């Protein structure tokens, strides 16, 4: 039970936080004071509950904290500073400045203590579900002495309006993720006005329908906040704490107003508000008593971490933990392929080979596992195994997978049809921003999809992912290239997509990792080539047949396979020029405008696909040897 | 009340439908028999309720029908055939064949009677909400004599698991869309197994939380189906009918099995099933009595349509309806711009000018209207006005907007920050597939966003939309170009995106529509140019300043503004070559790989953005006159 003294301390701590945030936004002359000030009281009590070691921010058994509303970053940075992370008062003063530790929205790997990059709304809620799932899996593998922690997530109206939060919370309820505590900052303010202009549902009933524990509190009442957190930690379900708050609480004239959401309060307003709450008119002012109290997080965390390290020494699972921290990719025994098969099939075998070698390799599909060939055999289902059934929830899958990747000991993959990668795109972007090591299995990669038709045939997707920074898209031409792609991809430490065929593809010779790591290599050479054909995936075979025809007609033609355009783009001119000779033609069943970087001519898709047999479509859209060789003969 | 004779008729009709669908899939040797067979009984009763005129499929006051599970297309095509639409028995036999009227998933504009393209799950539910909203707005403008109809949507587990359905149904409940009837085919089967592997929420409670009317029935009990539809039509809320069904009902050995979802049943299974239900072993068999009964839809629809046309003659709103069918773009009085401003600001004025001239011009933002400048002034809010508050639900916004566009008398726009166009991407793709006339207002278009940082700065998005077929992306350089872009875009009859600056841009000279319609034009020429600079949006100004500097140094430089790359791509070589002279350099604060189609050199973004003042960022990432001119001098 909180006594009056503590309540007084808390009040001072809360107000200190709110003015720190208001000062940061004012100093930056840009940013969001409203949410941090509304959440400050919750943040104070959370500081008494959360388990972190600010001196070793990557401690695997720390609690995870997600600010789903990344625009409340001023509050997160203030807390990191006060808790003892490597964020100084000067860093707070440099909020939103170039190359500061304190960018506008929290960025993973950029600022120690930030567990995941947030900002685009809704994803943080799914990230939190992902952390909670990671924790459950880790606990299953390593035992509860090594893994036993909670996941806290702060979110707002916007997060809960986004469909991804519905998807993720549905899965969290289904799996009874009792380690998950979602604190909903319910301030009724959105940018266009009161939430009631577009939202009137019963949130409590919604979460009850999803099998959550729901607690509603006054988000400025320390006793209620504390009590809710205590109850949440002992619940056997995920808990939603609906915290009724006032945006910009503490601001004399702007509290409760949407004007406080995304703009500085103004010097006068801050001064007036400080005085009203008994503060001096000083910027970035932190009383010693407040600093000491917040520093408790660090002291308690240190003790807990030490105790954990002690207990780990004699834990038989220690070596398992170590091996999950440092996965040995050389221990993977890749399959030997001997026959033609779809790359989605070869990839399924490769996933299973990787899974056998790496206990932290986990993943699943958005209800397409039999089509994506992503089942890890004999591995069981979550939480007792590493197969994840995401349901038909691509976007949540992407954001959950991001959290699995950031958790520290997992290497996750997620899967769907390539055309539906559109549904998880916003989370792929965050993975790319974070350079998270995770993998996307995207099968049914082109018009080769066939009869399902235009709605199911990716056309523009390849171009999109090639234009996404830090992202590597692999499109292997056969089962053997598929292996080499994985050998390279596992070592890239950045998100990688595998774009795989539904249809059978002929087996080509084995390929060395050395060839693959440049993204492109000469698949079949010819003497003093007059023509170079570039292609990826299934079109490599069309290129090879076209080259044969051209060579027979005396037009010396080389074929370059480009399983990873992104890697080719990183090579120096010497290597790039060594690949190309004569008239360069790219052949790919995609929109393909980016090929003009390397090619004189692109034979690609100028429009959407159609519904018919896949082979019929390849001919219909011009990917026949006859059409290709005719075009080339007319061009050279 | 249904009598026994009618029930017997219904049973025969239902079984006829199921075997027709099974035969179609078998003949195609590909497709989805399970859902059509499970939904057949509902489709029979729906045929007695739905108001359509198959001979004039575009009748504005028809009921709308959305097959959200587009994979159940065999059922839709069978119904269209039986109801009397222009879909023949031969068309059914050509299911999933090249250029048939019956592609794998329903395609709007391709098959008469298909109200919207579906397949990617969840979107159909939001489309239905969009049709219901369109109907409410139309009723408000035209009166209930002209507009008074229902919207039916069939959906499955997958649709309801997708977050977009949550978003859309939340909005539908908020607005009490009593004209909306959502029939949920609850068969508990997903591709990975029983729905319970990933989904266990209480659907009834979920929809009650969203203020829906919920009715649960046996989806094979004609009486219950009929009763539910009667109740739904008289409800004052949107209605969810939870119809418990058996997948592939009627199949002797495969009913209830996930094996019946996405593969033909097999000739033997179909034969055995037909015999078990008292049918002859004949393919595509439709008894006359069944055909006559289904043809009632046509007969009743014709009568209703005639009556409606009669009543329209003396309706004072008839001319308004006509003008909404044929919007007169020449009546738009565009603003006269006289000062520098952000293009998001000029665009806001243009939207208001269009709105004044066109009563069917409707739209809104996903809670960013004040930032996107999308408020239509003095126009009121939905349903009494044309301003839509979508809430923080981008994906639902996109799919709702698609339905508004297809409704027939509206020209919709939707808005968010450009980087969050990722969230609605799957619906933009469907708009592009359908070539729907609708507009996307995407502000905060580049690193110009500034302090919000990398999560909020689009980099790869421009490349993506340029690679999307049928889609036109406009990025005006100033307020005047902004007008010309709209003049061209309104006449394209395809979806168009407007990518607009947050920051102020200098006002340039007025531009003719003639210049704009080729996508690119010479903004500033020079004598015998040695260098041509291509740019779009804010970078046009950097190009102009760079050209000035180069010209001063004796390097004759031309500047070409490219507000719409997609249109430029459609021009013939003569026009394209007339634009370029000498060394061609593209300057754009985006990834920009597609510029190599036209340029020798691209000065773009090689990675993600950062958090700092926008002007600082332009310099930091190399978009300074000094850096650009240096690069060019080194290159030529």
UniProtKB/TrEMBL annotation, chains A, B:
SMART domains: Transket_pyr
Reactions that this protein is recorded to catalyse: D-sedoheptulose 7-phosphate + D-glyceraldehyde 3-phosphate = aldehydo-D-ribose 5-phosphate + D-xylulose 5-phosphate
UniProt entry tagged with the keyword Ubl conjugation: no
Record GO terms (molecular function): transketolase activity
Main EC class the enzyme belongs to: transferase
Keywords from the UniProt entry: Calcium, Magnesium, Metal-binding, Thiamine pyrophosphate, Transferase
Subunit composition and interactions: Homodimer.
Function, as annotated: Catalyzes the transfer of a two-carbon ketol group from a ketose donor to an aldose acceptor, via a covalent intermediate with the cofactor thiamine pyrophosphate.
Database matches in NCBIfam families: tktlase_bact
UniProt family annotation: Belongs to the transketolase family.
Protein name: Transketolase
């Amino acid at each position: 039970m909180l006594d009056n003294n503590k309540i007084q301390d808390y009040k001072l701590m809360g107000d200190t936080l709110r003015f720190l945030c208001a000062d940061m936004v004012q100093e930056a002359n840009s940013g969001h004071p409203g949410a941090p000030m509304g959440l400050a009281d919750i943040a104070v009590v959370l500081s008494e509950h959360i388990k972190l070691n600010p001196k070793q921010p990557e401690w695997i058994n720390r609690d995870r904290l997600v600010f789903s509303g990344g625009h409340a970053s001023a509050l997160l940075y203030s807390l990191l500073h006060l808790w003892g992370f490597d964020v100084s008062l000067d860093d707070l003063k440099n909020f939103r400045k170039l190359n500061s530790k304190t960018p506008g929205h929290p960025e993973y790997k950029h600022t120690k203590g930030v567990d995941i990059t947030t900002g685009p709304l809704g994803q943080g809620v799914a990230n939190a579900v992902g952390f909670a799932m990671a924790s459950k899996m880790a606990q299953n593998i390593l035992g509860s002495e090594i893994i036993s922690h909670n996941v806290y997530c702060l979110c707002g109206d916007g997060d809960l309006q986004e469909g991804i939060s519905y998807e993720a919370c549905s899965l969290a309820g289904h799996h009874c993720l009792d380690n998950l505590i979602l604190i909903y900052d319910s301030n009724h303010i959105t940018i266009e006005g009161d939430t009631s202009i577009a939202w009137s549902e019963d949130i409590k009933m919604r979460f009850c329908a999803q099998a959550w524990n729901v607690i509603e509190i006054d988000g400025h009442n320390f006793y209620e906040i504390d009590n809710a957190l205590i109850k949440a930690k002992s619940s056997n379900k995920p808990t939603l704490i609906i915290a009724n708050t006032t945006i910009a609480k503490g601001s004399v004239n702007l509290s409760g107003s949407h004007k406080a959401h995304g703009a500085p309060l103004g010097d006068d307003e801050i001064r007036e508000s400080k005085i009203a709450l008994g503060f001096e008119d000083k910027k970035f002012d932190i009383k010693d008593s407040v600093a000491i109290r917040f520093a408790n997080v660090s002291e308690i965390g240190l003790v807990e971490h030490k105790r954990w390290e002690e207990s780990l020494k004699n834990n038989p699972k220690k070596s398992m933990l170590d091996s999950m921290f440092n996965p040995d990719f050389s221990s993977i025994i890749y399959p030997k392929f001997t026959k033609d098969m779809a790359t989605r099939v070869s990839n399924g075998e490769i996933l299973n080979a990787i899974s056998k070698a790496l206990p932290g390799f986990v993943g699943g599909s958005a209800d397409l596992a039999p089509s994506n060939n992503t089942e890890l055999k004999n591995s069981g289902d979550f939480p007792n195994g590493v197969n994840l059934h995401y349901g038909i929830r691509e976007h949540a899958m992407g954001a959950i997978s991001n959290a699995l990747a950031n958790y520290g000991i997992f290497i996750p993959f997620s899967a769907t049809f390539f055309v539906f990668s559109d549904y998880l795109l916003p989370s792929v972007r965050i993975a790319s921003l974070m350079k998270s090591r995770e993998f996307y299995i995207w099968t049914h990669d082109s018009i080769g999809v066939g009869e399902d038709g235009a709605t199911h045939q990716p056309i523009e997707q390849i171009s999109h992912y090639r234009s996404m920074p830090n992202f590597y898209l692999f499109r292997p031409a056969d089962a053997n290239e598929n292996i080499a792609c994985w050998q390279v991809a596992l070592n890239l430490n950045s998100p990688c997509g595998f774009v795989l065929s539904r249809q059978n593809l002929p087996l080509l010779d084995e390929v060395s990792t050395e060839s693959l790591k440049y993204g492109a290599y000469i698949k079949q050479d010819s003497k003093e080539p007059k023509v170079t054909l570039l292609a990826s995936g299934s079109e490599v075979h069309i290129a090879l047949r076209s080259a044969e025809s051209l060579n027979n007609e005396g037009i010396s033609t080389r074929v370059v396979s480009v399983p990873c355009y992104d890697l080719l783009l990183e090579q120096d001119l010497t290597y790039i020029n060594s690949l190309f000779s004569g008239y360069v033609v790219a052949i790919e069943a995609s929109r393909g405008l980016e090929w003009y970087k390397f090619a004189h001519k692109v034979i690609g898709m100028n429009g959407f696909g159609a519904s018919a047999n896949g082979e019929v479509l390849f001919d219909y859209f011009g990917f026949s040897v006859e059409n290709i060789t005719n075009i080339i003969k007319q061009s050279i």
